[in-house]
Structure formats: structure tokens, C-alpha cells
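Bench notes, afternoon.
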Amino acid sequence: MSNTSEGGGAAHGLSGVAMTLLTPLYGRAHAAELLPGTAFRDPAAASVLASTGYRAPEVLTDRSNALGSVHRAIVFDELTAAFCRAHPDAVVVSVGIGLDTRAERLAGALPASVTWLGVDVPEVVRLRAELLPGDHSRVFAASITEPDWADQLLPLVGERRDVLVLAEGVLMYLDPAGLKAFLTSCRSAFPAAELVADFFHPKVALSGRHPIVKATGAQFRSGARGGRGLAAVAPGWESIGDHRVMERISIGHRAAAGLFRLLALGAPAYSAARLRATR
């Protein structure tokens, strides 16, 4: 398939939040040229990206955003790998999984006993099945703002308590009520889970200035003031780490992030938090 979808429409009929999956896919597909000095590679991403039939205006292809998506993937990969090595029988649940191929990227470095599950909206689940026929993850259609979104997954989790939930590029699209509902239902479904999620500070999230808003029409609807702020959205969570992403992109981004922290009394403009369900 060419890189222009038929009729000039969005790739495979995706729109809004669903279309945001194209930008991280683009970044991973070009990781070798964006970050030639790192070991991060995603061989499947280039062919999958071409197969989506994407249009250039739908994807943030500038170096800054592409680099940001790769650095975010690296941080999530590192945290996922550490969790799975500590818990060889872990279940990894990726919400808003999009066209992510983390299970394939990490398969050779992690125990084969790790179970990979995913959740996304129906049109993305259908697209993923079409473009990733050899998918390492079992993916289910559900809305994570519904209280029963995890019910389909529970039979596959069984009695295993070592569950890692990944929310990569997801939570900022939930409104405050939806964010609270997700954290509450996640805590209820997986009482001993850990959660890794990226988020923006409310002043950044609600400014409407992020380029992806213009590219896709999706809107950021909520934010958090650091990992502790995210944990405080719903009862039953504690913050066990904030991991910087924006600062990795460039010296300029590092300086801007530092200035924002100074003005925001230590809260990051953008970060990835690691939370743990409390008992």
C-alpha cells in the first residue's frame, strides 16, 4: 500500500485519538536515523507504518516529536524489562496499545513465561489484527473508562498477582472523570498491579498547543502534577518513581524542562510515572 490513503481520508478510517498511534509508530520506524548511537531498534515498525496508508499531515514527523516518541518507548521498555525480570511470570497489560510492538522488541531478552495483553478501541484492534498477523499480544476491544474494561482479561491473568499496566500516550486524552474511572477500575481489577503512565502537567495539557492536537484533532483533557499528583487522582495508588523523558530529547528541551520545574514548584511539564497499587 502506498503512503497515501485512498480518497485522501485518514489512514484506515482512523480519526481523533485513534490516529495518534501513527506518530510513535513513525518515530520507532526511524529510530536508527534519529538515535544512531543507541541500541533501540523496532524492525517491524517501518513496514507496519507503510502499510497503514498514512498521510504525512497526520503524523508529527519533525525531529523533536519523533525523538520524543522514541525516548518514551525506551523508558517504557526499560521499566517493562526490569519488572518482567523481577517477575518472570508477569502479565503485561498495554492499554491504548495502538500498533505498539513492545512484546516483539523485548521477546528475546525476557522470560518466555511473560504474558502480553492489550486493550484498545475496536477500529484499532481490527487494524492491528490486519497489520500484525503474528502479534505476540492478545488484544481486546474495550473502553478503559468503562468500569468493566478489564473483565475480558481476568481469565488470562488468573491467580498471578504480578501485573504491569502500561498506559503509553493514553491518559492525557481522558477527561478528569475518565482518568479517575480508569485508575479506580485498574486498581479493582488488578489489586497488586504496578502502572507506568506518561502525562503532562495540567498547564501544558490544557493549553491546546501540542502539535499532535493540530495533526489529529485529538484533545488533551487532563494532566497531573508529577507522579504523586497522578496517584492522588484515585484512592489506592502510591507513586514509586518519576522518569524523565522530555529532558532526553535535546539540551534545549532539558533547559525548558528545568525552567518549567522551577516555575511549577518541582512538578514536571511531562514525565512518565511508576505507580503501585496499595494494599
